[in-house]
Amino acid sequence: MELNKIIKEIGRGKNHARDIDFDTAVALYNAMLAGEVPELELGAILIALRIKGEGEEEMRGFYHAMQQHMMRLEAPTGRAMPIVIPSYNGARRQGNLTPLLALLLVKLGFPVLLHGVSDDPTRVTSEAVLAALGVTPVTTATQAQAKLNGGELAFITIDHLCAPMARQLALRWRMGVRNSAHTLAKLATPFAERAALRLASVSHPEYVPRVGTFFQTIDAPAILLNGTEGEVYANPLRCPAINYIGGAATEAVAWVERQPEVSVALPESKSASHTAEWIQQVLNGERAVPQSLRLQLACCLVATGESVDLAQAEQRLQQVGI
Fold this sequence. Notes:
Layout (H helix, E strand, L loop, with lengths): L2 H8 L11 H12 L5 H14 L3 H12 L15 E5 L10 H10 L4 E5 L9 H7 L8 H9 L4 E4 H4 L1 H13 L4 H6 L11 E6 L5 H10 L4 E5 L15 E4 L7 E4 L15 H12 L7 H13 L6 H10 L3
Parallel strand pairs: 1-2, 1-4, 2-3, 4-5
Antiparallel strand pairs: 5-6, 6-7
């Protein structure tokens, strides 16, 4: 590949850079994941994309390349549609409730795959919270498939789900800034595109149409919302709008409008131990499930066809004690 020509296109700054086409993006990201791009050029590409922002064709091409390196899993036979949850930000200020969302979905009968980073020196990861809850990660496709088939939460780190992506993500700590891999990892799935529902989040509401268009383009169902500190769970203090994308035929539709701010007793601190203790109390019925998460769970029930509408989904939640 003529990397200098690609860098010349994407590296002209925010106002003058040009996007590369889909085929070039696929070839470029495949080369990056295969370790075939020299360090100097790799750094230039990552910073150029950081400044310019990924175009729609670029993001679709990078995603296509990433999926070629992804672990493959099958939807369990005779079960509800699997749900894929990314967790790549962790907790900075308040407790990370992504593990609670995943475990509640398991309680509802969904096969759930939760994937994320194994370490972040600046935040409390889902892995740390799950470890405090006694949930250990799987490391192979066989183990993950067995968990899904057996009705248990399958948690896997990106190191095992897609090792080349883990190496791209780790460059953050060397370079000082995030790169395209951080966005791509949150879109990853080990299932066929329409075989699982993906939960996705954005950092700002204005990005919802862009991410919604991405899921339309790849014809994949998704629940999309403004995340909590970058995580996909609906903020208990103020539930954001929750949107559904059905695939190629539908644009993002708001199933839940943004809710008023409320007061909720959250974990004592963001620590893994305090968060796990609080989550366990919710799972034991000693604390109420935050209404924002109940709304998110209801949307998942409707999106997967397990309920016909949010009213019926609410009845289902009550039946299982959520």
